[in-house]
Amino acid sequence: MRASLIQLAVSDAEPAAERRARAAALVRAQDGADLVVLPELWPVGGFAYDAWSDGAEPLDGPTAETMSAAARAVGCWLHAGSIVERDPDGPIYNTSLLFAPDGELVRTYRKIHRFGFDTGEAVVMGAGQEIVTADAGFATLGLATCYDLRFPELFRALLDADAELLVIPAAWPARRAEHWNLLSRARAVEEQAYVLACNTAGTHGGVEQAGRSLVVDPWGRVLAEAGPDEQVLTVEFDPAEVAKCRAEFPVHRDRLLGIPAPVQR
Ligand SMILES: NC(=O)CCC(=O)C(=O)O
């Protein structure tokens, strides 16, 4: 299968509508791709907190509309990254959108672990409560977003829900680029799954983004890695490698589902 990760540059200077049009053109250029992925909160900027309220949109808002049409035009699965979702009955959420090749919005994933400690997402956004997977035909996709990468228990839950391709849009800063690379590889090895980790480039909200999107195979090998700037990372791989890896090195069989209590000394 072929996947394209669109590592979009996100700056405060570019209006959301222009970036949306640019992102749609990039998606539409991915002819022949089975899966296209965009980064986290690219319409507004993952660190541009001041823009979130005005940039919030419903699940049938301008980003969903544009991306549905782009998925349909290419005939691919499109993980359109995430938007600031305006829920009329609740807080705002950091919500990922997954479109099927006919343009239908088939899954949404509200980010479970909110980044920022006492600021940003952690303060103003609601936390997702649901593990989300989708059978895309070529593989089962497991959805997670950026800071979620630091929480292995979420990925274990995705494994238990049969995920084979872990799709992770992000707005990950340059100053922690090594964590991004290491954790993406760790999650691939740990779950014996492909990791498709799509970051933003550029600088917004005063935070320089790392770029360095990557695709890792179930053995932990980096199949492709982007540089720091806007780039489309295209990679071909065989999803059947997940089952092969799990059969050849059946480490999950040795999981202790009830971890013994610590010994009191
Ligand atoms: N947008 C994010 O979730 C940023 C996460 C991050 O910077 C980190 O985990 O480090």
TrEMBL record:
It comes from the Bacteria. Residues 1-239 form the CN hydrolase domain. Pfam families: CN_hydrolase (PF00795). Keywords: Acyltransferase, Transferase. PROSITE patterns: CN_HYDROLASE, UPF0012. InterPro entries: C-N_Hydrolase, C-N_Hydrolase_sf, UPF0012_CS. GO terms for molecular function: acyltransferase activity. Belongs to the carbon-nitrogen hydrolase superfamily. NIT1/NIT2 family. This is Acyltransferase.
